[in-house]
Amino acid sequence: MTSPADATTAEVPLEVLVSRAFGPEAFFELGGLLPELAEDLSGIEDRLKGALPSDFPPLTEAVLYACTTGGKRLRPLLMAAAHRALGVTSTKPIHALAAAFQLIHTASLIHDDVIDHADQRRGRPSVLRAFGLPSAIVAGDYLYVRAFELAGEYPQAIILRCGEACANLAEGEMLQEAGRFDLTVSRDQYLRIVTRKTATIVSAALASVGDVAGSTAPVVEALAAYGRAVGIAFQLRDDLLDAYGEPDLLGKPLYADFREGNPTLLSLEAYQHLQGRSKAEYERLFARREKRPRELARLRTLTDMTPAPRLVEAEGRHWAAAAIRALDPIPPGPYRSLLERLANAAATRRY
Amino acid sequence: MTSPADATTAEVPLEVLVSRAFGPEAFFELGGLLPELAEDLSGIEDRLKGALPSDFPPLTEAVLYACTTGGKRLRPLLMAAAHRALGVTSTKPIHALAAAFQLIHTASLIHDDVIDHADQRRGRPSVLRAFGLPSAIVAGDYLYVRAFELAGEYPQAIILRCGEACANLAEGEMLQEAGRFDLTVSRDQYLRIVTRKTATIVSAALASVGDVAGSTAPVVEALAAYGRAVGIAFQLRDDLLDAYGEPDLLGKPLYADFREGNPTLLSLEAYQHLQGRSKAEYERLFARREKRPRELARLRTLTDMTPAPRLVEAEGRHWAAAAIRALDPIPPGPYRSLLERLANAAATRRY
Fold this sequence. Notes:
homodimer, 19 helices, two-stranded antiparallel ribbon, Farnesyl Diphosphate Synthase, mainly alpha
């Protein structure tokens, strides 16, 4: 298995990424695609790195730190695979765009960590903790700006797609804030938050790949639907891993959602299924602004008493399946198969 | 004179703005331009307001709050005047661009207030204070994004100008952070901070007006130089008003720079000119992380003992004069005169 150190290394080889996401057997099945994908990812990385340097070294340092924490590179991988699945022989035209979406994603994580007071991210101190609040705010702003400079290389329609996705992200963050510490949030409202905070940006990234490739409207819509569903599957898995994952693999401590009082499908389902005193205890603990380690563990134990973990896992698989179905208008081939595998990986990954 | 309430009203009539900036006599001299300028500002305002609504009402509320606090509308006014000074009969083509720059400016103020823990802005609670930290971070991000959507209506070169100016702004904020509580910052370094934090964005806004109007390179460069110099004059006046202005007119308490330990030309010059025990006292008080009201007042009293206020005022006038000289390649006429007046107003305004 992978060691925690891998997760913190700037340049994780693609083989390791693939192995983590799909299991070691994927080497044999996907072997032929790996060189092309590695080339894609490295081209995207070049554009991303090229956008970072500022005239003020400490700012460059903070954004480099934020952008080279390994990460899963799921978005660039999805975009590159989708572009190739459309029969395009080179992903060059989407390098800058994929870099833009990756920068937007990173910017949003930096600011999220400020809002959530998160100390850890991908096995290292968060930008907030490593560089302080002013740097974290400025670094996030800077990455948004650099992202839009990169997006500025594309037609206005694509800039608007980026912008709309970022606006959704902001709305999702606010919606999440509004529902904090509140277990009466409905399942629908939770899905609205997830759609806005996570899924819309993946959806926009994939749809814009279709735009760049000059695809027909049904193909662009298929990619958008695929991205939306993968994004939801991904987030549901995130929620589950936050309570049931291995901290060493995740690169951060468990129970951030319990701690911050962010209702997820896991806690909402657990709360729905608990009864009597257990339900009251769950509600009371969840609503605490400051929670002790044993209170966090107790929330997890109470969750274990319900079918919530199973339900969330099933829901994730449901969205992965929906993502795969959405790919119908995309020509079959090894890259469409890869997109299918990535959808399943989003719902079953261990980190 | 204007009442403090005016400063907090969303729609301050242009006459009032002009009167505040230039004094009442300007009505007679500028009377002919006012209807055109009012039309310009209202067109810009329409594009700005049109960009704000989000699907999540509380986010819309926060950004509307941030964008309708009156303010001086100096940037839109400069851009509209510059566009007309170039002989363009309508400013319509720059409405979206001016709105974009105004949104960028507002976004940076919201995030600045988070970094500076500022409670007040333009006579009302800051977004941070009124809506909380998460909303302030998200609202700033959202405005940056909407700004770039608007900028996306223009050619890539203009998007890059916006982006570069925002990157400078971020660098300036970081430079300022790095020099906080430190009176050994050099005058050059202070001017670098001001250039990045304030002047570059005004410069980019004006240069992009030249781009949109299809002006020659010398004219674009003249506008850029004018904007840079006006920006510096404006900021020097801001620094002075922070210690010598009328809080009611300013809409915020005095001494924010002393309190936050932001060295300005005022404190740097005062420190340079003080000697012996006074100098030591100044340094000690300035470096305090928490300052009491009487310590803030003492810093001002010590500043009064030096030629610093006079020097800063003179420096502001120097930059205003430089701005006016930079306008040489612009065709003479009422709008160029207006730009000259605006430069002087930036250096002499009372709020």
